[in-house]
């Protein structure tokens, strides 16, 4: 049992702080080693893990923590990716690229640094999230999923057709590859700290309360509609940020990148990791991202015992869907359930952890 | 003793659902510091009246006025969270806890309505030490409140894992965390055994005295109603049929009729 007096509690806090700092330093060292020794392909996957973790966390805030089933994350990623790209492309690049229609003149001269473009990407995605949330969050459950999916598609189609601003279906190319390991993991660290602080505070209790029982939450004086709109917008900020990082990693973006499959991948990260668990989203991002890459071998032609099997494109999604079904059947709450990582795992004096509950509803 | 000023006053409140008049021109008052009962057979409109007071239903006509520490307010048609802000808290007939959260988290959620620190201040605690301190106070107060209601050993237990009686008390603790001056209890004795409901009498009185509350309660357990209420209002089919002190209600023939049916002489 942990000691009942305040000093031992304080000691544990100090211990956890030191352990976290050491772990962060070790992790940074590992990343530094990776940048020196690993090839571009592996580094890109490591980068993608961080970006997917940011995206997974932001979707988890909406779906897992606050209980709003949203299928619209790809749309907000698209907004973030385009905003960031448009802000860091140079005027010369812009005049060269817009060949269908000339670029809107006010946009031509707009040029900022990468970090400013990331912030703008998040803020503008959050603004659109807020706009979408106002009508849509009056719905609940599955209807909300359908409506957000619809809005995500509307955003995509707007981007395809707003040629003077987005270069239409041609997309944007030659975006400077600003997203390196330090940038993506730096952003992940900031998002992670903010998220942990938010969910550990009383506001985290409020979000979970809105998820668990909206009527009881209202009775407790919580303006549930405003709270949901706020959580949705915050999640969209993360979506925009992740989209911007992704655009700067891949260096070319077009509207087709942000279809429902993108949302589906994120949903898988959140569900496999554990709805409502921050740790779960990180674990989910690692598992799903690496699996998605590793499973590519099933799409290559193979020969088993002299029989040649041609590669079947899309096979890995089939396998992935099967894996998801297995997770849902045998471990409905995901890898982590609603639990969070704690340093107590490594010590004998385990604090009585919360029992694992079901899904968000 | 002079009549205390009313803490809650309903003036000819009516609500219709389609053709059904659930509450028909109900006027009643709850004096400050009183423990008042609202009784009636099933479907009499008691819970509808509660839902009107707490803002879940908008009355078709009539007025609900509340006099709390922040003065008199017309709370007719207020949304539920505004009603809570004004100082009314309630519990539910079928307990509505935040099931996946611990008892402590449940009570802390109740304290949020009075919290001044904003959500974004917790992301940068070093910049807002006041918000961080407030958060610590809320936690300490919540633990103290759990202790006062005899729930200290469940502090870190998930709400859904608590025994039934403790869940009822936790729901009350959560309601008290919103710092109300008025408490509405919807069937607090439901599902309790005779001994537990006997203890409930003292518990409700202690709540009123310790937290300076006015209490309005719906209850079917007549022992509880007669034992704790100072004044009783009786509803039948949405209409007020009687009101008075417990002894008078017990003897009132209209009440007996409403519960047991009319005596017929011709047969």
Uncertain regions spanning at least 5 consecutive residues of chain B? none
Q: CATH topology of the largest domain in chain B, which one?
A: Rossmann fold
Main sheet of chain B: which strands, in order across?
6-7-8-3-9-10
Examine the secondary-structure arrangement and name the CATH architecture of chain A: Orthogonal Bundle
Please estimate the helix content of chain B.
25-40%
Q: Report, as a whole number of angstroms, the end-to-end distance of chain A.
A: 33 Å
| Fraction of residues in β-strands of chain B | 15-25%
Give the overall shape of chain B, derived from the CA principal axes. Answer: globular
CATH fold topology of chain A: ABC transporter involved in vitamin B12 uptake, BtuC
Rg over alpha carbons of chain A: 22 Å
Q: What value does the Rg of chain B take, in angstroms?
A: 20 Å
| Major beta sheet summary of chain A | 2 strands, antiparallel
**Major sheet of chain B, described briefly?**
6 strands, mixed
Number of strands of chain A: 2
What is the residue-averaged pLDDT of chain A? 88
Which CATH architecture of the largest domain in chain B would you pick? 3-Layer(aba) Sandwich
């Amino acid at each position: 049992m942990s000691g009942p007096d305040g000093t031992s509690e304080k000691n544990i806090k100090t211990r956890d702080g030191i352990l976290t700092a050491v772990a962060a330093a070790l992790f940074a060292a590992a990343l530094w080693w990776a940048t020196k020794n690993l090839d571009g392909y592996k580094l890109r996957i490591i980068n993608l893990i961080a970006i997917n973790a940011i995206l997974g966390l932001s979707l988890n805030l909406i779906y897992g923590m606050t209980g709003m089933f949203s299928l619209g994350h790809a749309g907000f990623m698209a907004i973030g990716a385009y905003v960031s790209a448009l802000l860091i492309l140079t005027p010369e690049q812009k005049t060269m690229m817009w060949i269908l229609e000339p670029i809107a003149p006010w946009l031509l001269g707009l040029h900022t640094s990468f970090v400013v473009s990331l912030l703008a990407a998040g803020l503008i995605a959050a603004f659109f999230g807020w706009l979408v949330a106002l009508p849509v969050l009056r719905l609940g459950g599955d209807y909300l999923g359908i409506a957000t999916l619809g809005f995500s598609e509307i955003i995509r189609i707007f981007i395809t057709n707003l040629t003077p601003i987005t270069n239409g279906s041609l997309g944007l190319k030659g975006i400077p590859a600003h997203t390196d390991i330090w940038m993506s993991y730096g952003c992940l660290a900031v998002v992670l700290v903010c998220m942990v602080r938010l969910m550990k505070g009383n506001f985290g209790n409020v979000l979970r309360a809105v998820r668990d029982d909206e009527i009881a939450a209202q009775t407790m004086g919580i303006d549930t509609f405003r709270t949901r709109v706020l959580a949705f917008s915050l999640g969209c900020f993360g979506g925009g940020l992740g989209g911007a990082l992704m655009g700067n990693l891949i260096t070319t973006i077009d509207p087709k990148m942000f279809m429902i499959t993108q949302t589906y991948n994120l949903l898988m990260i959140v569900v496999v990791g554990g709805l409502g668990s921050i740790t779960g989203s990180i674990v989910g991002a690692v598992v799903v991202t690496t699996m998605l890459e590793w499973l590519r071998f099933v799409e290559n032609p193979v020969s088993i015992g002299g029989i040649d099997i041609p590669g079947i494109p899309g096979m890995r999604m089939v396998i992935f869907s099967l894996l998801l079904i297995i997770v849902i059947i045998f471990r409905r709450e995901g890898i982590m359930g609603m639990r969070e990582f704690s340093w107590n795992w490594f010590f004998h004096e385990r604090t009585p952890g919360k029992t694992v509950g079901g899904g968000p509803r | 003793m002079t009549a205390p000023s009313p803490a809650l006053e309903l003036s000819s409140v009516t609500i219709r659902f389609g053709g059904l008049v659930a509450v028909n021109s109900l006027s009643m008052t709850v004096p400050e510091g009183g423990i008042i009962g609202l009784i009636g057979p099933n479907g009499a409109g008691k819970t509808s009246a509660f839902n009107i007071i707490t803002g879940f239903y908008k009355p078709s006509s009539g007025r609900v006025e509340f006099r709390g520490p922040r003065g008199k307010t017309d709370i007719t048609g207020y949304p539920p969270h505004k009603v809570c802000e004004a100082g009314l808290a309630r519990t539910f007939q079928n307990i509505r806890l935040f099931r996946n959260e611990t008892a402590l988290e449940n009570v802390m959620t109740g304290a949020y309505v009075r919290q001044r620190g904003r959500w974004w201040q917790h992301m940068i605690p070093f910049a807002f030490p006041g918000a961080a301190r407030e958060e610590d106070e809320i936690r300490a107060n919540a633990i103290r409140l759990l202790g006062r209601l005899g729930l200290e050993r469940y502090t870190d237990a998930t709400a859904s894992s608590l025994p039934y009686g403790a869940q009822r008390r936790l729901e009350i603790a959560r309601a008290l965390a919103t710092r109300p001056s008025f408490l509405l209890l919807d069937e607090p004795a439901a599902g309790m055994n005779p001994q537990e409901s006997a203890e409930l009498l003292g518990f409700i009185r202690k709540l009123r005295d310790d937290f300076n509350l006015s209490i309005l309660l719906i209850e079917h357990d007549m022992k509880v109603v007669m034992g704790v209420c100072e004044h009783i209002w009786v509803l039948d089919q949405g209409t007020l049929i009687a009101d008075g002190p417990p002894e008078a209600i017990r003897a009132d023939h209209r009440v007996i009729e409403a519960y047991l049916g009319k005596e017929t002489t011709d047969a």
